[in-house]
Specification:
The structure is a homodimer of 337-residue chains. Chain A is α/β, with parallel strands linked by helices. Chain A has 13 helices and twelve strands. In chain A, the strands form three sheets. The first copy, chain A, has a six-stranded parallel beta sheet with strand order 2-1-3-4-5-11, with helices on both faces. Chain A has a four-stranded parallel beta sheet with strand order 7-6-8-9. A two-stranded antiparallel sheet of chain A has the order 10-12. In chain A, α9 links the parallel β6 and β7. Chain A is elongated and about 90 Å long. The N terminus of chain A is likely disordered. Chains A and B meet through α4, α5, β2, α6 and α12 of A and α4, α5, β2, α6 and α12 of B. The structure holds a DNA duplex (30 and 30 nucleotides).
Chain lengths: 337, 337
DNA sequence: ACATCAAGAGAAACCGCTTCCCCGCGCAAT
DNA sequence: ATTGCGCGGGGAAGCGGTTTCTCTTGATGT
């Protein structure tokens, strides 16, 4: 009653009968098929406009075998990294008339495969962020997901486009920056043990120590939260290092706060680097030297790789490594004389 | 070739022929219809398992007239508020087996109606965040979207469940808090002119001045960005007010930074409040007194309202007002003697 | 032993759209 | 005038399921 809620949606048949043509012709007109007489086409369009007819996407999808939708599986939507990827992906896909269906696995890795499969069945392709999934499971899953783009993962046996941020490279450059400033005693405030990106940073630091054998590097257990950084400030203050590489910006901000409470000045007494270049990294006091990961671009490129596969049916694009861009700011400075 | 990419997806017909039954029977089994002989059902299930058959959701959707998907239209995915709503919505919907399709209107209000309409056609319902859309357009659009939940908007003529954050109430409480601390000269650093939530704050402040006629309140043009807050610091410093209500946390952080550069101490010289309680509000120096909006809950409730409509076909749930919760922190203090 | 009935499974219609196939018609060529 | 051809549009067959309808079959009651 209120607003005509019960009036059945208008379908192609309604337009057809109003325009006095077959529904096949309506379909042709709606799809811009030029083999329709212009006067009839105009009549159909008029009828469609009058009835406010819009083709039912589900019917179209079934007939065409495509949904114009891609899925993205993320482990945690509250993580800014995935938010940015989602955003880049969504905007890029929208430009080409595609929509994005989201699936949040809530960090439950056993859900990831199921969600990805479900998403794939509803969508024309899947972007998969599954940091916790085992390599074996990923290898097995990948072929069934075919139009697939991986984020921060790669597959051995199956050629799948993959976008990985080179965390190792980033942390190496940050460490090298500290060395340039004269620091010879460094410390790395680690991230979560099980985090793949923490492992990559550790590998990068291995390379770093190989390159700079005279630089001392110690490891201090940390975390990926503000509080973890804050609580590490004692350990950091007493470790003797003058240059601190922190797992990420959030923890670095916590550490910054803890150090300032202890009267330790940054960068006069201690130099500090973060990682991620989150929006507020430039607004801390002092502003955080960090490694910027162009994650929105990453979402954008994820779509481009997806589109290549959907359009060309060609999966042969290689892994893209994203080198972070070092942002030099106020939290690092020359070592104290 | 690699991985059997060209093998057509297995359909209900494949299972049917493998199990030696009609596809109708397969459908019955897949949907748990009990009118199927147990031994046949077992045979069908075995065949389905062996072929790894999963019903095609598009076919199901067409037949059932439902997609088990809801859409959400947001003006800007990079806004933490909408990210939180999206997250709450997505998780709540997932618990009931529903997925979420996102549509980012990129702040283009003319897109909002189109995106909402498109989303509605693909989904069983739409959650609409359209702060910029005109009331008239919203009233016209709402009935066509029927299972619809509005965020921070209401409709007059159409009864539509609506979740609105009571920004006016929040800013009133913050202002009252400043008055309690002895402040008699307040200033409101405004948000974007066209923003509906800014207007609501202004209305709240009107009520406030009516209640506290002896308190002076002036308005300073601001914005919703860090830089806008930063650049307002001169105007704020010279305005004579001792208590500053800032449009939101981001701008407040910018202002905080600008004031500190000018040697103005918070809260000793000036008290400052934000709005939103974003994750870092508690970590600024000093920590920001602000109004917390339970936005993830809001996403959760949005789903509940949506489910009510989908299940019961009942739209009669009223508008829910969310009163913000005031977080007293270090950025506000007694007025200087 | 025959009629009645319920259970179970297949045939077919349907959801809304796209597209292939084919036919009728008008025009040009012979 | 007849044939050939191309164009435009209608009919119908899918796409992959669900569900109604109908028919078969075996069991039950008398």
């Amino acid at each position: 009653m209120a607003g005509g809620r019960n009036t059945r949606r208008v379908g192609i048949a309604d337009v057809a009968s109003m325009a006095g043509v077959s529904h096949a012709t309506v379909s042709r007109v709606m799809n811009g098929n030029t083999t329709v007489d212009v006067v009839i086409a105009a009549r159909v369009r008029a009828a469609a406009a009058e009835l406010k007819y819009k083709p039912n996407p589900v019917g179209r999808s079934l007939a065409l075998g495509k949904t114009d939708t891609i899925g993205i599986v993320v482990p945690d939507l509250s993580n800014p990294t995935f938010q940015a990827i989602l955003r880049g992906l969504s905007i890029a896909a929208a430009r080409d008339g595609y929509r994005v269906l989201i699936a949040d696995s809530s960090e439950v890795s056993s859900e990831e495969a199921i969600l990805a499969g479900e998403a794939r069945r509803r969508c024309d392709g899947v972007v998969l962020c599954a940091p916790r999934m085992s390599d074996a499971e990923l290898e097995e899953l990948a072929p069934t997901l075919y139009p697939l783009v991986l984020i921060n993962r790669t597959t051995e046996s199956v050629p799948t486009p993959s976008l990985v941020v080179d965390y190792g490279q980033g942390i190496q450059e940050l460490a090298a920056h500290l060395v340039e400033l004269g620091h010879r005693k460094l410390a790395y405030l680690t991230g979560p043990d099980r985090s793949a990106s923490n492992v990559q940073r550790l590998r990068g630091l291995e390379k770093f120590t190989a390159e700079y054998p005279d630089v001392e590097l110690q490891f201090i257990p940390g975390g990926n939260t503000f509080d973890a950084g804050f609580e590490s400030s004692d350990a950091v203050a007493s470790c003797g290092a003058t240059g601190i590489l922190v797992f990420n910006d959030v923890a670095a901000m916590g550490l910054l706060s803890g150090l300032s409470q202890r009267g330790i000045r940054v960068p006069e007494d201690l130099s500090l680097t973060g990682f991620d270049d989150m929006p507020f990294a430039r607004y801390t006091m002092p502003p955080l030297t960090t490694a910027a990961v162009p994650i929105t671009d990453l979402g954008d490129l994820a779509w481009r790789r997806m589109r290549e596969q959907i359009q060309a049916n060609d999966a042969a694009s290689p892994t893209n490594y994203f080198p972070p861009r070092i942002e030099l700011r106020g939290s690092t400075g020359p070592v104290k004389a």
